[in-house]
Amino acid sequence: xxxxxxxxxxxxxxxxxxxxxxxxxxxxxxxxxxxxxxxxxxxxxxxxxxxxxxxxxxxxxxxxxxxxxxxxxxxxxxxxxxxxxxxxxxxxxxxxxxxxxxxxxxxxxxxxxxxxxxxxxxxxxxxxxxxxxxxxxxxxxxxxxxxxxxxxxxxxxxxxxxxxxxxxxxxxxxxxxxxxxxxxxxxxxxxxxxxxxxxxxxxxxxxxxxxxxxxxxxxxxxxxxxxxxxxxxxxxxxxxxxxxxxxxxxxxxxxxxxxxxxxxxxxxxxxxxxxxxxxxxxxxxxxxxxxxxxxxxxxxxxxxxxxxxxxxxxxxxxxxxxxxxxxxxxxxxxxxxxxxxxxxxxxxxxxxxxxxxxxxxxxxxxxxxxxxxxxxxxxxxxxxxxxxxxxxxxxxxxxxxxxxxxxxxxxxxxxxxxxxxxxxxxxxxxxxxxxxxxxxxxxxxxxxxxxxxxxxxxxxxxxxxxxxxxxxxxxxxxxxxxxxxxxxxxxxx
Length: 493
What we know:
This protein is an alpha+beta fold. Among the domains are: 60-119 and 135-154, no CATH class; 289-382, PDZ domain (Pdz3 Domain, Roll); 395-489, PDZ domain (Pdz3 Domain), CATH 2.30.42. Helices cover 20% and strands 34% of the residues. The protein contains ten helices and 31 strands. The strands form seven sheets. Strands 25, 26, 27, 28, 29, 30 and 31 form a seven-stranded antiparallel sheet that branches. A six-stranded antiparallel β-barrel has the order 3-6-7-10-9-8. The longest helix is centred in the N-terminal third of the chain and has 28 residues, at 30-57. The chain is elongated and about 75 Å long.
């Protein structure tokens, strides 16, 4: 029988005889069908695995409604009708993540603001992990359990510096999520997020770990986020990020993007949250260890200036007077490469690892000093609550850098907050110049060039001329916030 093709007025259709179909099927190797069957079987097993995790963990995931009365002066602040998004507690962070309930039409707006999010039970007697930005300032917290029961929760404690909070409900024999070891999590692993985005209870999404150790996001002071492409939206905050064992590896906290999910979600590593949880549960607050150093990262090429074999580690910018670090003998320009026998790759990592230690803890630091390894034992103290750590006067313009400087005077030091320091102050930065490219700003204090102190304009000019021959400029600069190193490659003169 031959193959026949007929045409219709609407759309061509191909008709193939049964005999031809049989011949075509016989021409394909059986192994191809077997491979397809195996692939489909793998997908089925993966789907079953996700379903099993969701069934296991979902009962321990809760919906959270946090309420606070917002005051404006002597009276309650009023909000416009129909505004679907607003800061529940007068905080822009809430505006980004949560939706408040708009007042009913034709009624006076209520002074109470409501934020909605997620949390997860971590003990059978009702302790729940969630985010500080959701419940930290709440006056009333309502919980909806996985089985639909509703109850009030008590705030046990909140830590704005990590954005972790602990609340508790008075119930027993509750399903709970076990906590994993997030340090063993690897980029590329499958993870699952469960939460209540937009009030849609127990929404399950899956993705992979996109990156680890994300910091400088601006969500909290201590940041070491897990990045994932598992869909996270408004209301997911506070919910668990789970591994394939159904254990929590993180607390979903933030999203990056213009609005809803764009595939960049951030979760607090559960190992960071564990220490905070224990302290909040026991004491209602977090007390952190204090080393007493200001630290920074070594940018590419900086290690050579300090006789280091690489750019890894955390460099000590300054040491606080009478601090544990000073008492132990640590100095500026030391590079911390190990803490408690484990490598230190950068400043953020060292800061986070010190912060989880309790005051009184002895820690062992390995530092590089002029290329030589030295070991120090430091007894940490209590971190200050406020986070604080206790030539001629003419000006000169450096055309190659595109900035103007003048010697730091007593009057300038007092006005700019540089008392007991020396150096030259940047007075002007030319737009588009090298100095502008490397974010130098008026008011910045330049204290060193290529590790040599500069106390006045004359020393600054001499050090700059010497640096031009080397083709690189390493500046130690100070602003109101911090001390940092800036490495600037110099073009040929």
